[in-house]
Amino acid sequence: MGIFKVGDKVEVLDEAISGTVQKVDGDKVTLITDEGFPMQYPAKDLVKAGREISIANFEVAQVKKEKEQPKRRKVTGTKPKERLAPKMEVDLHIHHLVESTRGLSNFDMLNIQLERAKGQLEFAMQKRIQKVVFIHGVGEGILKEELHYLFRKYENVKYYDADYQKYGLGATEVYIFQNP
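Predicted structure:
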């Protein structure tokens, strides 16, 4: 680095490019490469060509020692429970989906819940999320049956009851097979 003047022979750090300074504009230096192409670089990326750089043997030894030591890789393993935990939860309770159920029939509420389930399932497929838990509650089992009917329409989906300890009987877990 340093102050460059028009006509100085320079080399670019970290690149195999050298040339002659054509123009200096503050921190920007325009050079004509040996091949005849004009290129602009910040002055900090250039050094004068032919300039000897002295390095002490101690510095060489330090760098060599650093390069020879194998770098330790940080292993961030996931715990078995975390690996098996579902990646996404979708709560289909109607009071989470609409502000008020006033004026909605049971049929309307069921359709709202199924539309949300279908949208979230397709979102998970698009984002390549493998496991999704649909929380439907226990109730009379109508929503659960309709969800199972929906899941059967997809070839790359397997569904089963979600973790009993966490959800009880009111949730279905879906596993989405990923295509490579």
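Summary: Strands lie at 9-12, 18-25, 28-33, 38-42, 46-48, 88-91, 131-135, 157-161, 171-176.
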